[in-house]
Design brief:
InterPro entries: PhoU, PhoU-like_sf, PhoU_dom. By secondary structure, the chain is mainly α. Helices cover 81% and strands 0% of the residues.
Length: 232
């Protein structure tokens, strides 16, 4: 898309995309820090994640305000309109990633208060893969790389399969020792939050594809099978 006759319009679009990039960087950092808090049993770092999520909330409001103003004043069409509509959706999605990271941090405060368990390392590995996919989709947004966006979209099934594996592991752990039910529940909440972040990452990939290609990515994304208690 080339420059507009009204250069202020270009400035507005750049400002909107810059806010999305800032939100993406902050969402990445919050998730990374929340995982560090779980891994290192660090309640202080977890509290910092909880406090810093407010900045992500404020940025979402700023994106909504800025995008609404640009649409009202400039009446954009085609690619410009896709950028702005997608920005609204991406801001909401990234705010949700921040909320889920904050939830993980809250669980990390609890985990730091009880004895260490080996299962936590499985959670951290799942988190590392989830964070990696989030980083990649934000790179795809910056570079407008639809091939990368599609690849991430297809790989969400990997996160689903890790979640199912952890679910079985934690439930078995709780069945073998009912005294661990409280701890196991916290671990399951963290794993579920990570699985949801994986879903949000695929939504971001869909937005990248829509911005560049001008059409939806599709609705046949590979998904893992819902987990049950059969066979435990």
């Amino acid at each position: 898309m080339g420059p507009h006759i009204v250069s202020a319009f270009d400035d507005d679009l750049i400002a909107v995309q810059a806010r999305i990039s800032e939100m993406g960087g902050l969402a990445e950092d919050l998730l990374s820090s929340a995982l560090e808090a779980v891994k290192n049993r660090d309640p202080q770092l977890a509290q910092e994640v909880i406090a810093r999520d407010k900045r992500l909330d404020a940025l979402e409001v700023e994106v909504e305000r800025l995008t609404t103003r640009v649409i009202a004043l400039r009446q954009p069409m085609a690619g410009d309109l896709r950028i702005l509509i997608s920005a609204l959706k991406m801001a909401s999605t990234l705010e949700r990633v921040g909320d889920l990271s904050k939830n993980i941090a809250r669980r990390a405060v609890y985990l730091a208060s009880v004895r260490p368990v080996k299962i936590s390392s499985s959670i951290v590995r799942m988190g590392t893969q989830t964070l990696g996919q989030l980083t990649e989709v934000l790179d795809a947004y910056t570079s407008k790389d639809t091939a990368l966006a599609v690849a991430i979209w297809r790989r969400d099934v990997e996160i689903d399969e890790i979640y199912n594996s952890i679910f079985r592991e934690v439930v078995t752990y709780m069945m073998e020792d009912p005294r661990t039910i409280g701890l196991g529940s916290q671990l399951l909440f963290i794993a579920k939050n990570l699985e949801r972040i994986g879903d949000h990452t695929t939504h971001l990939a869909e937005m990248v594809y829509y911005i560049v290609e001008g059409e939806p990515l599709g609705d046949d994304r590979p998904k893992g099978e819902p987990i049950g208690l059969e066979g435990l």
